[in-house]
Amino acid sequence: MTKRYTFGAKAHESWATQLTLDEPYKGPLVRYVIAAPDGELVDWQVRCVEHLTEAGAHALGIIVAGRNARRPLSTFWSLAVALAQPRSLKPARDPGTARDLRHLGPTDTIDAEPIDFVLDFCDDGRAISHARAIVEKARLGCWRFAFAPSPAGAPPGAGDMASGREVTEAALVSCDLSGATQNVLMRGALFVERSSLWREIDSLMYEVARWPAHACRRMLNAGSSGSSGVIGEPNTLFPASRQTHGPQGVLGFIVRLLASGASAFWRRLFLSSSWNIGVAKAPIESFAKNTQLPEIAWYPKADVQRFAADPFGLVVQGKQVVLCESLFPGSDGTIHSATFDGTTWSKDLEPALELPFHLSYPYLIERDGEIYCVPEASASGEIAMYRAARFPDRWEKLVTLVPGIGGVDASIVQVGDTWWMFAGDIDDGPDHKLSIWYARDPFGPWQPHAENPVKIDIRSARGAGTPFVVDGVLYRPSQDCSQTYGGRVIVNRILKLTPTEFVEEPASIVNPPLSGPYRFGLHTLSRFGEYTLIDCKQRFVSVSWFVRMLKRPLRALRGSP
């Protein structure tokens, strides 16, 4: 059967043309040209090309654009990068596909039709001015990377460290033939690596290297340009870049690097952390507007080092039963159960589900008198559902919902006739990327959303409990990991949810308690009848790691393992 393919149907009107094939697809659908200073690619750019190749895109050549001699230089930042040695900015050890690409000069042309876009690694308009004849053929214009402002001469991400910003922001944008930014193809907010310049640069550059491939998949799946809106002023693109704190520039960078490094060193030597579960005596719907936790009944942990986290519960035959992740440091997580009678907890956590890999986030579904659990089992490389043969301590695997994806914190909810699953991928930024699947039946088959990942934001992507409905509006709890893992919960109001569209906005922010031992983090809100289950982080002094480090040289001298 003849299949019709459409690519870039909603691109900017001055240069958009649909790519339509009236013959069966037999080769790469997306064709693009790379533009780079002197035709040389560094490691993150080579990775970008590799991701595009995996997505079915085909590079036709490299525009050799000269370097900008007027680019501001900075002795400090040059020295800082030289000392940090970020791998992403080094010449690639194995250039792979890019090694064999044809180099294109000002007088060269591309005979192959069509060209969909120019992937522009230059930091100005040199690609357009250098090879305009080639760029004019690009149906979707030039794709460029934009980053939040940095000091003159500083690499991307350094400005976020130097200015004390909450997140590192970046975007993939398309430009027309005049060089003006027209559409945002993808944007994201990432964690700021405050104590390491090389980790900050590498995590940022290797993340954005995936975005052109993501954008291509979005366009192919949704049949559109995949743009997330037309932009104007830079402040519209990077609103968080205005949120700076304390000294900035070189001084701010040095002060924050030293302070963050000292804090990280102190925590690693003497501080440890764990989580505990509790019952907040208010329905989950109240958190659509409320930002304060009500009275909490904490589980009485006997050992401060024990983790009890990710609580989900059901009221079964009048008995309030909670499943949660349980582990001790150095061990894999298992699923344990406890009961709550409205006032007190059962004394001990009892084993409920154990498998040969780490388990957490035991998301519960009750349907037609049966109880099902979709635990996080990312090490298994799939998202699977288990049926309770005897609740809560006997389970059998029922079906694999999403194969080949190490799902993280999968949360499932029914809206009308459609079931929706929100989850992360352990291999692709689980703390800052959100993906969606949908199905007519909770047992599958599940289809991926056309714009996966639908969201890239360290502040509100990762799931944090049970989605719920208030006044016909769906709300989704999410983790804010911008300052620390599971720092607080952002409750998002979902404005649009279809197989091809997803839009949500923050509705409320729920912080951990202001005082008490559990004030250092909060990352779950889940329905529990008329109550809400939560978990919070505590920190405590622990010298065990420090003692182990001191024993290492002694063991080495004795020749013992």
Would you mind describing this structure in some detail?
The protein is of the alpha+beta class and 561 residues long. Strand 18 and strand 19 form a beta hairpin. The protein has a seven-stranded mixed β-sheet. Strands 18, 19, 20, 21 and 22 form a five-stranded antiparallel β-sheet that branches. Helix 1 packs parallel to helix 6 and helix 1 runs parallel beside helix 7. The chain starts with 29 loop residues before the first strand and ends with a helix. It is globular. The N terminus is likely disordered. 18% of the residues lie in helices and 35% in strands. It contains ten helices and 28 strands.
Which descriptors apply to this entry?
alpha+beta; 561 residues; seven-stranded mixed β-sheet; disordered N terminus; 35% strand
Spans of at least 5 consecutive residues whose pLDDT stays below 50 are 1-27, 229-234
> Describe the biggest sheet?
7 strands, mixed
Number of strands: 28
Helix content: 10-25%
- Overall shape: globular
Radius of gyration: 26 Å
Assembly state: single chain
Q: Count the DSSP helices.
A: 10
Mean pLDDT: 86
Major beta sheet, strand line-up = 3-2-1-4-5-6-7
**Distance between the amino and carboxyl termini:** 65 Å
**Strand composition percent:** 35-45%
> Strand pairing plus helix content: what structural class?
alpha+beta
Question: How are the secondary structure elements laid out?
Answer:
Layout: E1 30-37, H1 43-54, E2 57-65, H2 75-84, E3 103-104, E4 117-120, H3 126-130, H4 132-135, E5 142-147, H5 158-163, E6 168-175, E7 181-190, H6 197-208, H7 211-222, H8 234-237, H9 249-270, E8 271-280, E9 296-298, E10 307-316, E11 319-327, E12 334-339, E13 350-353, E14 360-367, E15 370-376, E16 382-390, E17 394-403, E18 407-415, E19 418-425, E20 433-439, E21 447-448, E22 455-456, E23 468-470, E24 473-480, E25 488-497, E26 502-510, E27 522-528, E28 531-541, H10 544-558
Parallel strand pairs: 1-2, 1-4, 2-3, 4-5
Antiparallel strand pairs: 5-6, 6-7, 8-9, 8-28, 10-11, 11-12, 12-13, 14-15, 15-16, 16-17, 18-19, 19-20, 20-21, 20-22, 23-24, 24-25, 25-26, 27-28
